[in-house]
């Protein structure tokens, strides 16, 4: 057997670059993935030959103090979490130009990739869910709330055990406001809890439990409980808790899911209640371990100081937290995050559709060579002529909840620069009214 394993091992070692090891400690191998802010490489620790994943962040791409602050907070969160079902951060090395996250290498890939090949049996779904809850419980006991749990952020190691990754959207207890709730609105649409859509503040633990419920459904069903080609329709289903269980789900699992996907966060099941549930308890062996069982993180190697900023920023995962951009909610709800650079923008507002269209009608009267055309339902289209040619912009208002609507604006033809200026200087301020002045200063 040793002779059979030797060749693959030599091939793996030869895949690394031997010249100029990083900090004299790590040989960099193949590129695993890249995104807007970082690249992630497979690497080898020269001291012990261990495989690691190194996320390399170019400081020049962190254009604001808040982005750097979010990197520091992610480091702060990951360095305190030592659990067998959480991707481990070994150390952080920094130069003047780059930051290097040296992390545990999880070579099994995303759980999402496994699900895409077919749904899991109830027993296998239970195994992964038990490991997920064990890790989430640990996070909550340490005052950390993930806020973006989904199969894409769950990895599998060589033994088929689950590990949570990507804490870029996480929050800590200290970020709660005076009312005891978190208020930064973020997450991934299909997994977001209904109370986040209400904009009234939320309990980070209850939000994570909801996401765990969606994950459990996906594991056994093979598809999402709340899904619709129209994003607004999907939000409505989430807010009302409208989903159906497939016929192969056991009655015990259906009952358990109904408690996880309870739209009322007050009556939603807690972690302690989950652990006592008959469906969950089957074959469950709660691992006993202590933080000191793991190697302590070296603060001296971090090379980054904390400036105390508490804003959140969306970093979605590839296999190992690659910062690839995904569909998060920050740009939908945070006025400071909305952007029209791509010719499309969404904005959530606590206002009636009638009032919004009235304000848009008034402000667009001031725009030369344009006319506003009403559409069916709550929608209008602004048509006109510019020096650069025809300009067309559509605006639709969707009622999400009883007191919350989403405004969707899209450039359909014409100059992008004019669209951006029109949105930022006239239409968005008109839609928000006094909200623009009264809104919190948090940024995505």
From TrEMBL:
The keyword Kinase applies. SUPFAM superfamilies: Protein kinase-like (PK-like) (SSF56112). Residues 26-280 form the Protein kinase domain. Keywords: ATP-binding, Kinase, Manganese, Nucleotide-binding, Serine/threonine-protein kinase, Transferase. Residues 310-334 form the NAF domain. It is an enzyme of class 2 (transferase). The keyword Kinase applies. Its EC number is 2.7.11.1. GO terms for molecular function: ATP binding; protein serine/threonine kinase activity. SMART domains: S_TKc. Its cofactor is Mn(2+). It catalyses: L-threonyl-[protein] + ATP = O-phospho-L-threonyl-[protein] + ADP + H(+); L-seryl-[protein] + ATP = O-phospho-L-seryl-[protein] + ADP + H(+). ATP binds at residue 55. PANTHER family: CALCIUM/CALMODULIN-DEPENDENT PROTEIN KINASE KINASE-RELATED, CBL-INTERACTING SERINE_THREONINE-PROTEIN KINASE 11. Belongs to the protein kinase superfamily. CAMK Ser/Thr protein kinase family. SNF1 subfamily. This is non-specific serine/threonine protein kinase. The lineage of its organism: Eukaryota, Viridiplantae, Streptophyta, Embryophyta, Tracheophyta.
